[in-house]
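Objective 1b. Sequence-to-structure analysis of Reverse transcriptase domain-containing protein.
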Amino acid sequence: MTAPTYELSKFLSNILQQSVNNTYSIRNSEEFCEFINSSTVGPGYAMVSFDVVSLFTNIPLELVRKGILNQWNNIKEHTNINLDLFLEIVVFVIEASYFVFQQKHYQQIAGTAMGNPLSPVLAEIVTGELIDAVLSKLGVHIPILKKFVDDFFIVIPANEVDTVLGAFNDYHPKLQFTVEYEVDGRLPFLDMVVVRNEDQSFSTDWFMKPIASGRILNYFSLHPKHLKINVAYNFVKKVNTLSTIKTEQQKKETVMRLLKLNDYPVSLINRLINRHNERRTRTPTQPENDDQQIKIYKSIPYIVGLSQQITQYFKRSNEFDNINIVHYNNNTVGSLYRAMKGRTDTYQRNNVIYCIGCQQCDAKYVGMTTNKLQTRMYGHKSDVNLLDKVTKIENTSDRLHKLSGLKERTAMMNHCVSTGHRFDLQNASILDHSLKTNRLPILEVCHIMTTQNINKRTDVEGLHTCYTGIMHTLNRLSHRNRQNRNDLDTNTIETDEARMNQNDE
């Protein structure tokens, strides 16, 4: 999200997603399940799955151009950009992919970046072009061909598998495929296994790889209860939807086995199964009126007890009846592992809350910047240089007038003018950061209120009074922690001195 071309890629992706229509693509496993369970083939056919090797990083640029040209009649309906400029922007985004590792910049010379929002739709265009080109040249009848991103499910004559695989691999040297054959009339695809019946019809069953741990969100995990229930219910729904070859009792046993493995109570599992069965037999309701209020979703961290109270407050309030609160957990799997990406230098980071200490006293200044921290430090340095020049003005009246103006710039300059001190601009520290710039002012206010600093109190005047008690508590705890650290340091010094004296004796 911090890449320079991210927003441009997102803009192009939105246009192409509305325009590209690939008859071979499926949106999810439920759609494929419905399709394949209503299909039949004649004898002599085999099921295989083709998988593109590293699709995103091998998308050829020339095939992207060709695909956009072939589908331009659809694309131009969703944009007022002309073809030449549109192609130029797409090529620019692809060729501008780079990353930084250990202070060195590397440019991606082939394909598209994995995190680029444009990559999936470009892969969709390229694989669609590939399929059309290969099928037009093959003299082989392929009754079924469906794909999900880079996974292809194909039903072809059993003696033509190698021919078809060779044709796909010959299309472009960058796009190479591996193949998986059916075994005993069964072939895994997505999160199901496709079963070919004796009458050449198809059935499906929910599938979990043999190496899978079977772990889902544990019932005793620190997450909102409704989230855990939704996870369990969606699993019940998935097993029942995808398992067309099993009896109701077999489906129930599958659900029971995995949910009990994740500590879900048997009574809850039974209720979820009954709820799904009731909804499956219920008559669909009519769509709601369009004149209803649009729901607004806001996310907050999940804190046991507090988050539920906030959610209930919004539900009971008539003033915020269109706002839905969703929770997220700060403790993610990513926080357990060391980041493999190169660490960005402190002064090269943006969207941060920073702190600068005075070189002559304990004063600290807290600030916010959406630019690189280095750029903000240049601004502070410029103010200090101007202050040095002003102090050398011989005319007392002019000097005092300009010093008065400098004091109004920032609280840091006010401190510098009043005391003659200077701040350590070479050792600024980052207190907080956020990719969402609208959060930064709130974060700045929180840090101003919970740290010992010289900032003007006017910075926190816009904060709602409901936060006063919370900030007071945080400030008190922060002060207590600092005091405990100071006491610990003092005790350590006294212990070291006593040990040294004992050694001298």
